[in-house]
Amino acid sequence: MDFLFVLLLLGCLCSFVLSDQQGDALIELRKSLNASGQQLSDWNENQVNPCTWSRVNCDLNSNVIQVSLAMMGFPGHLTPKIGALKYLQTLSLQGNAITGDIPKEFGNLTSLVWLDLESNRLTGEIPSSLGNLKKLQFLALSQNNLSGTIPESLANISSLNEIQLDSNSLSGRIPQKLFQLSKYNFSGNNLYCGVSYGQPCAHNNADQGSSHKPTGLIIGVSIAFVTIVVIGGLLLFWCKGRHKGYKREVFVDVAGEVDRRIAFGQLRRFAWRELQIATDNFSEKNVLGQGGFGKVYKGVLADNTKVAVKRLTDYESPGGDAAFQREVEMISVAVHRNLLKLIGFCTTPTERLLVYPFMQNLSVAYRLRELKLGEPVLDWPTRKRVALGTARGLEYLHEHCNPKIIHRDVKAANVLLDEDFEAVVGDFGLAKLVDIRKTNVTTQVRGTMGHIAPEYLSTGKSSERTDVFGYGIMLLELVTGQRAIDFSRLEEEDDVLLLDHVKKLEREKRLEAIVDRNLNKNYNMQEVEMMIKVALLCTQATSEDRPLMSEVVRMLEGEGLAERWEEWQHVEVNRRQEYDRLQRRFDWGEDSVYNQDAIELSGGR
User: What are phi and psi of 497, to 5 degrees?
Assistant: First the structure.
């Protein structure tokens, strides 16, 4: 028994040491890149586990597998400490202003599949240690100031599919094996290519099936010479154009097949046919849900991976495919344990689809109101975890993404549950995707009635505080199990809105009457009251009075709620007194043409 305990202890210590090393390596990377105070601000030196940091993605064992720092304008250099990230699969640093050498320690990243250092100001030679990256499939070092020869070791990476070395100051001989890759580009250097080796400097997948070897012996030496001269001239012109303004496409669709290239580490472009097959031609029997953004279908990919495919509706963008891709890329870099990870997307001239992992426990709304016979009820401890996890996900979108992402439709139906019943916020960023219009009218309000903040409904202008309002309504859903709007309550009272109903019971000190009966009284009443207080603070009529999501997180963790609640009660008392004063002043009777409910509904929510 003692021996097993020692083994477990050693395992934990190894895990802590590994996490510590990874965190230290990333902190060193941030320092060496000269990140500004606003950049990567959540990379906290005191928080050794980096898996919740922005632009970092981890596997289930908390190993860092993806770091995506593209196009952030970093002016620094690369640190050798990055070699400590033994499990790193994707490193994207393209489009910055990074100077200096590529450290030889990059050769220690033996799990690396994707390395993109394109469009920087790197100097020195390509380290031969990159030949140790036996899993590498994609290497982009284009548009830098690299010199020296191409290491022969790169030609020995059997997994390598694509190499982009164009627009540098490389010289010497190109390893012949590199011409066998499916895609390569050596143009804009002082390398021997073209006639010397019977190979052009550049090769694109669009040329599949054509041969790049000389065919002059078949049709005559003189004709071959003329052909080579013409092609050589065209290649020279093309290479110069690439050198001046070359910018590599992030996504490429080849002959209708799926491009397996990964952008930002794991984002994938699917072919329409693949998703059509996965969803059984978008069969109605595979519909998981439907909302303002379109239908969601359950699907199974060719490798048996279960996915959820969202087929967007009401989409029209003046920028077309490129604008959609830019917005998808923005969503894809928002990585947090409480946010639904985007796997990939598909575009056609008439369709826009997003692909997510399938959440086997479906949504919070389903677990509250649509359970099938025999399925377990969402217990109170799980509801508390859902409240806190959702708050942390929204806090990340509002305060740690640049630019910030506003959800615009926060509700129980858009909070999903993973296999461990942890909250995963879905559909974030979609409002912006589908609201890019060819019109001058106010942006269409996106959301669900009962969850929409009053200022968003009246002006069409959303902010992070509109999300806070929706989150407050979602907390009431968690406590009560009820919908935000329920017309069945008209039979007993006037409060169709769940918010009004809860506020009335709170004033009457009868909150027990509203708690979800499915809980069978298995809950802590003090915790219920705390959650309702947070909900009412989040749903104040004036947006400026609502807390930030970071403040909500702290209140749910037991910090600062009492003070905010006391302030809120004072405001509510004054509001009620003003309402009563107006009633006495006008002395409305039952037959008055004025609608008393209208004034009350216009008050604080």
Answer: -80, 130
Sheet strands (E) in 226-286: 259-263, 267-269
Q: CA 287 to CA 33: how far, in whole Å?
A: 46
Average pLDDT of every residue of the chain? 75
Closest Cα partner for 572 from 502, 491, 498?
Answer: 502
Q: Read off the pLDDT of each residue in 580-586 and give the average, rounded to a whole number.
A: 59
- The pLDDT tens digits of the residues spanning 206-258 come to 433 333 333 333 334 333 433 343 344 434 433 334 333 333 322 222 222 23
Q: What are phi and psi of 70, to 5 degrees?
A: -75, 145
**Number of helices followed by number of strands (H, E) in the chain:** 15, 22
Give the whole-angstrom CA distance, residue 471 versus residue 387: 9
How many CA atoms lie within 13 Å of 349's alpha carbon, on the beta-carbon side? 0
> Does 555 or 562 have the greater pLDDT score?
555
On the question of pLDDT at 328 being above 80, the answer is no
Class of domain 258-358: alpha beta
Q: How far apart are CA 81 and CA 99, in angstroms?
A: 16
Which DSSP category does 215 fall into? -
Cis peptide before 403 (omega within 30 of 0): yes
Domain spans of the chain, in order of start: 8-245, 258-358, 371-569
| CATH 3.90.110.10 at 8-245, yes or no | no
Q: Specify the pLDDT at position 291.
A: 67
The pLDDT value recorded for residue 335 is 80
* φ, ψ dihedrals at 488, nearest 5°: -65, -20
Q: How far apart, in Å, are the Cα atoms of 330 and each of 94, 319, 340, 371, 388? A: 15, 15, 14, 35, 25
Does 409 qualify as catalytic in the annotation? Answer: yes
Among 172, 112, 170, 161, CA closest to 141: 170
Q: Kindly name the residue from 116, 409, 427, 516 that is annotated as catalytic.
A: 409
Cα 341–chain centre separation: 6
pLDDT at 320 (0 to 100): 56
CATH 2.40.10.340 fits 371-569, yes or no: no
Is residue 479 within 8 A of residue 514, CB to CB? The reply is yes
Q: What is the pTM of this model?
A: 0.53
Which DSSP letter does residue 316 get?
A: -
pLDDT tens string 72-102: 889 999 999 998 999 999 898 988 999 999 9
